[in-house]
Amino acid sequence: MSWSDRDKQVWQSIKAWKEDLYEYEANDLEHTYVKWLDYAFESVPPDVQEQFFQLLDGWLFHMHSLIQGSQMQNDARERILVTARAFNQDIQTIDDLQYLTIDQLHYIAEQHAGRHRIYSLFQGGITGTGGIVALGSDLPAMAVINLRSVQLIAITYGFDVQTPFEMMTALKVFHASTLPSRLRALAWEDLMEDLNKKDSNYFYDGSEQLTDYTWLEGPMKHALKGLAITMFKGKKWSGLPLVSMAIGAGVNYQLSRKITDFAEKYYQYRYLRLKKNQ
């Protein structure tokens, strides 16, 4: 199946985006943070670190499985197929979605990604009220929202996350998209390595380790967000802590935007690569 002119344009935009990943240079503040993080984890015994990150990986695996098996996600899969049939009435399965054009797939993906960015915005606003329950539930809620958005983007581009390979890949895309900017190029290379060496469209044969201490920068930024919310929650207008709500909403929205942008670039890349090789 040959590429259209539009496919070539999107491929070039992905290449430019990848170059930005590789050309990113950490600033002095980031270098200082990395040194502090390295020093902090040197004092933690390796076996304790390994056990902690195994538990964290297990939590992400279970959450991912619960989301993909939920009725809400099954309904979303069906909505994707129904929307796709408006473009091509012969679409019956997830695999058939790859017969749509890249602009049609982007339209469907953006519907779901935009909806989840709004969910993140509202979640951040609720967190910004400063309640203990709201602050405590923010990180798990954001993980659910953004894992779900990655799954739906994968499905939109014709990759069924109910297979072991695509399930693990979606988790790794989520992980890569939440890494600090200086590490995202390496994470992209890891995704490409998995893609190049896969022997099956079903089984996953790569490393199943996801998190390490470098990934904790994201959760730590959320902790700083919580601190800022706590500082400003006493400043209210019309009975609402508008400043802290704006902080929570803005940070959460930008995180979801970063995740959905990365995920769509990855699945667009795979869609075009598959189309070129057919």
Brief overview, please?
This protein is an all-alpha fold. The protein is 74% helix and 0% strand. The chain has helices at 5-23, 28-42, 46-68, 71-87, 102-127, 132-156, 164-177, 184-197, 217-232, 242-277.
List the helices and strands and how they pair.
Blueprint: H1 5-23, H2 28-42, H3 46-68, H4 71-87, H5 102-127, H6 132-156, H7 164-177, H8 184-197, H9 217-232, H10 242-277
Helix pairs in contact: 1-10, 3-6, 4-6, 5-6, 5-10, 6-7, 6-10, 7-8, 7-10, 9-10
Report what the structure shows:
The protein is mostly helical and 278 residues long. Helix content is 74%, strand content 0%. The chain has helices at residues 5-23, 28-42, 46-68, 71-87, 102-127, 132-156, 164-177, 184-197, 217-232, 242-277. α5 packs antiparallel against α10. The longest helix is centred in the C-terminal third of the chain and has 36 residues, at 242-277. InterPro entries: EcsC. Pfam families: EcsC.
Which features does this protein show?
globular, 10 helices, EcsC, 278 residues, 74% helix, EcsC family protein, mainly alpha, single chain
How much strand content do the residues show?
under 5%
Major sheet attributes? none
The global form is globular
**Helix/strand structural class:** mainly alpha
The whole-number mean of residue pLDDT values reads: 87
Helical content stands at over 70%
Low-confidence stretches: none
Secondary-structure element pattern, one letter each: HHHHHHHHHH
Q: How many E-type strands?
A: 0
As a whole number of angstroms, the C-alpha radius of gyration is: 20 Å
- Summed up, the helix count is 10
- Cα end-to-end separation: 5 Å
Organism: Rossellomorea oryzaecorticis
Protein name: EcsC family protein
InterPro entries: EcsC (IPR024787)
Pfam family, one: EcsC
